[in-house]
Design brief:
245 residues; mainly alpha; 10 helices; O-antigen_ligase-rel_domated; transmembrane helix; WaaL-like; O-antigen ligase-related domain-containing protein; membrane
Length: 245
């Protein structure tokens, strides 16, 4: 007779997952990024809902949701001293919120002046030359930053035709990822059950939500890599399903 192990493989697997989730959420909290918190909530919730749509996965989703709730509650209790100031200051009086509103106004005004765009990477330069920052009351040079909205920034730099092409491209990416061999008569959500598709789609969706509050996906090398690598994942899924069908 073999010696009975005190813990099962499932226990160790759950322990590893729990520790991993804890440190990921702790790192997210320590970014002090409210936009990051919002996007994480949207992305995780969307992923759980998509998995819950598949009947045989529902029990696992419930277990995972309970585990997430416990870890979030523990982290909230442990780190509330750091979280609460960021949450309580989320009002229109918060300077970061005020500046984002002003940057969005600047983006809208620049689009009305140059509907065909000012060129990639030129939004801040043109805005400075046109005096748009000072016109909106942003007097310090350190605050002359890009528009903190991906879609307004893209429109300002490559124009209205450019943003329409960009949005059409993103829509094509999503549709291509869930279509198998061009069989468009299949139910639209049938292929959302695949874990690979769900993960890649929620990654891209979360990044695009983040784009409502920041510009790094367009202006920073790290952000561009994140965006286009995620888009490449969805393209790869579409190509793989067509090849194996």
């Amino acid at each position: 007779m073999g010696v009975k192990k005190p813990f099962s493989v499932d226990f160790y697997g759950l322990l590893v997952i729990s520790v991993g989730i804890f440190f990921i959420l702790l790192a997210l909290v320590l970014t002090f990024s409210r936009s990051g918190w919002i996007v994480a909530i949207v992305g995780v919730t969307g992923m759980l809902v998509l998995r819950f749509l598949k009947r045989e996965k529902r029990r696992r989703v419930i277990y995972l949701s309970a585990l997430l709730a416990l870890i979030v509650a523990f982290l909230g209790y442990l780190m509330w001293f750091a979280i609460s100031p960021r949450v309580e200051r989320l009002t229109m009086e918060d300077p970061s919120v005020q500046y984002r509103v002003l940057y969005n106004e600047l983006g809208g005004e620049l689009i009305s002046l140059r509907p065909f765009g000012v060129g990639i990477g030129s939004q801040s330069i043109v805005s400075i030359n046109e005096g748009l920052y000072t016109k909106l009351g942003i007097m310090r040079a350190v605050d002359w930053q890009p528009v903190h909205n991906l879609y307004l920034l893209v429109t300002a730099e490559i124009g209205i035709p450019g943003i329409l092409c960009f949005l059409f491209f993103l829509g094509f990416v999503f549709l291509d990822a869930i279509r198998i061999s061009g069989e468009e008569k299949k139910w639209f959500f049938e292929h959302l059950y695949g874990l690979e598709v769900q993960t890649a789609m929620m990654m891209l969706f979360s990044l695009l939500i983040f784009g409502l509050f920041d510009h790094f996906l367009w202006t920073l090398e790290s952000g561009r890599l994140m965006l286009w690598l995620t888009i490449s994942l969805l393209f790869g899924i579409g190509a793989y399903t067509r090849h194996t069908s």
